[in-house]
């Protein structure tokens, strides 16, 4: 009998319940994916028992012969795959990695120029109320009405503000990022260019999104999104970065430990190495290409049902729907879609008048369902289900500033959605489709 099942049936059963959930729904949160069995095996290995503060050959503890080899292999693979001068594979995740980068390059009060949250940026790119907008000064950039990056405006803002670092990165932006233009702007004002490519690493490696390596000084990526690795992150310094500051690799390493973190998670490091090896295969590339094809196909179908897509479509793995023309709040739509087995997330949209927890948009993407093997034909079905679900919740809006009324309405809408016959019928159809597509890593 499985040891966990015997020893802790409560946790065992919860894991089994999550496996069932993941199998029976369409996971369409664009930052999620399914790691391979090999990656899961490495994460669950005895490497997690070890403490390895420091770096290969220079650890604070004894007994790191194997951990050294694991970390060196992960670094070598990343350097080769991305063509960068220096890699640190120890960051616990994306947010601490960005914190390390700022500490290594900025002084308190220096300016971080990043995309505003409602236009698809990230909390760690200078947003007020986070460390990045508190210790440092966040200069947030926004764009024209359609939500498309305006590089001329970006340049004007950079010239005016003279930030010390510019972050080229998005978490809810469905279009290609022109890293070459970002590079020119950063060079013009003498700023570092950080390309946080967490969402699009897989696409870049497969050649379906431009590569920032020639233009950025520093590249950060989480390892669990399109890369399909474990939850973790990597910081890379490019040749351009070393040229700007030859001490930069050392500064990054020093700000990881002792600056910010303790022992690296050696099990995660091993799993990152596994994911990096997988990323060299033809099947990895094929999946990334299909991920973009699927997103475009889904966009086409959704436009056909009069969904208002921010920027009018997509070039990458994600879509952002502005639901205001459908007369439904994003949080309600996300709940209704979840009830139908379509998992995405509410998201702010450009010029949103609703608070982030009750945002007017819905973000979804194709990495995880593509990893399962779904193609354009399935995207057509998904768009049609989404249309049917959203039809059922039309009119379910929430007030922007009356918290009490919002609470009452939320409860009322949720109850209605839970018993809605059409939505339950769609959930059944979704489950039937999902049964045909096995999930990697789940038996
Ligand atoms: N939580 C990630 C995302 O969903 O995009 C970013 O950190």
Structural features, described:
The chain is of the alpha/beta class and 443 residues long. It has two domains: 42-278, Aspartate Aminotransferase, domain 2; 282-434, Alpha-Beta Complex (Aspartate Aminotransferase, domain 1). It has helices at 3-7, 9-24, 37-43, 65-82, 94-105, 131-134, 151-161, 179-189, 201-205, 239-244, 248-256, 266-278, 282-304, 330-339, 367-371, 376-392, 403-418, 421-434; strands spanning 26-27, 54-55, 58-59, 86-88, 111-115, 137-141, 165-168, 192-196, 218-222, 233-237, 308-309, 318-322, 342-343, 345-347, 361-365. The strands form four sheets. A seven-stranded mixed β-sheet has the order 4-10-9-8-7-5-6, sandwiched between helices. It has a four-stranded antiparallel β-sheet with strand order 11-12-15-14. The protein binds D-serine. D-serine binds next to loops.
